[in-house]
Design a protein that fits this description.
Elements (H helix, E strand, L loop, with lengths): L2 E6 L3 H12 L4 E7 L2 H11 L3 E4 L8 H11 L4 E5 L3 H13 L3 E4 L9 H17 L1 H10 L15 H7 L5 E6 L3 H10 L9 E5 L3 H14 L3 E4 L10 E4 L5 E7 L2 E7 L11 H11 L4 E5 L8 H9 L3 E5 L9 H7 L5 E3 L1 H8 L3
Parallel strand pairs: 1-2, 1-3, 3-4, 4-5, 6-7, 6-12, 7-9, 8-9, 12-13, 13-14
Antiparallel strand pairs: 10-11
Helix pairs in contact: 2-3, 3-4, 4-9, 8-9, 8-13, 10-11
């Protein structure tokens, strides 16, 4: 069965262009087009698409309001189209908080300078969301992500408590699709008494990470900021890898800093968890805790293998709480996970660090 897509944009040119790109892929079918959020809400109810592509700025009802209503009435995987501005980044992050699953630049050539490659990446993203649509819809139905979840009073599992009592030298968290919401939930709960540095690796374009770091810092008890070349790793400081670049750890003898460099030919993710993990395995002494959260693909698995050889603890997010069970699944399938925990369990465990 083809992946059924609803296109939502107030620009007839954009709608036509997206439809043309998707029509070139035989396993993707455009089932409808909407020119504003209000029309999108109605058409999602009528057509029950597998995936929705959603613009942000539209008349009558904007994309964020439409996402909220769709999540309340007919939870559906939504991919946001974002403009490459600070305001566009902030609006897209609002949409992700409201329940959107993923996002891409509105100008597809910002994904990759090769136009054909950019089109292929866009179609593959739609295909992956569509193939996982049943799981995603179930996940979205379980979690009204447009509202704050009730406080979970269940105790932290004994297994997580035992690991949390261990003294770590570094905490590193990696994520992709669904990661912004997951990372925000975890980081906002970390105590201001945290005595170790934190690194955050989120697949994200370069014009987004600054706004994402600001948002994390707003809600966190620790300091969070976008990493810059040469920034030292310090207790109580979380550094977010800048989009479009690679973050590595350098130094030794318990004095470490980050190196920010351009990506090399075979490094498809920017930033890449494998690159960051490998540098940590090479340079950081003492026990490391690496956590792999929701995301497509298998980024982090190769780096986790190297970390594991150096005695690191590896946690993977459990499937039932993932937006996309790709990156954590790769860790679990490779028998690298010391613990497999739901997002709530990870968040509560981190509050004890």
């Amino acid at each position: 069965m083809p992946v059924r897509v609803l296109i939502v944009d107030d620009s007839i040119f954009i709608r036509k262009r997206v439809a043309e790109i998707l029509a070139e892929t035989p396993d993707i079918e455009v089932v409808g087009q909407a020119c504003n959020g209000r029309e999108a809400v109605r058409m999602v109810s009528e057509l029950q698409p597998d995936v929705v592509t959603m613009d942000v700025e539209m008349p009558e009802m904007n994309g964020i309001a439409a996402v909220k209503q769709i999540m309340e009435e007919n939870p559906t995987p939504i991919l946001m189209f974002s403009v490459a501005t600070r305001e566009g980044a902030r609006a897209t992050l609002d949409a992700l908080e409201a329940g959107a699953v993923d996002f891409l630049p509105k100008q597809l050539d910002q994904i990759n300078s090769n136009r054909e490659t950019a089109k292929q990446l866009f179609c593959s993203r739609i295909r992956l969301l569509g193939q996982g649509s049943k799981h995603l819809k179930q996940q979205l139905c379980r979690n009204d992500r447009g509202a704050k979840p009730p406080r979970d009073s269940r105790p932290v599992p004994a297994s997580a408590r035992r690991l949390v009592t261990q003294s770590y030298s570094l905490l590193v968290i990696a994520a992709s699709t669904g990661g912004p919401v997951a990372i925000q939930k975890i980081v906002s709960g970390i105590s201001d008494r945290l005595a170790i540095p934190v690194l955050l690796i989120q697949h994200m374009p370069g014009n987004f990470t600054s706004s994402f770091a600001e948002r994390l810092n707003r809600d966190a008890k620790i300091e969070v900021r976008e990493a810059k070349h040469g920034d030292p790793l310090k207790p109580g400081l979380a550094l977010l890898a800048p989009g479009g670049y690679q973050l590595e750890v350098q130094g030794g003898r318990a004095s470490y800093s980050v190196s920010i460099r351009d990506s090399r030919e075979n490094e498809h993710y920017q930033p890449c968890a494998d690159v960051a993990f490998a540098s940590i395995a090479e340079h950081v002494r003492g026990p490391v805790l690496a956590v792999v959260l929701t995301g497509m693909g298998a980024d982090g698995k190769i780096g986790a293998e190297q970390l594991k050889k150096k005695g690191a603890s590896i946690w993977a997010q459990a499937e039932e709480s993932c937006t996309v069970y790709g990156m954590p699944k790769a860790i679990v399938d490779a028998n690298l996970a010391d613990r497999v925990l739901a997002l709530d369990e990870i968040a509560r465990a981190f509050a004890r660090l």
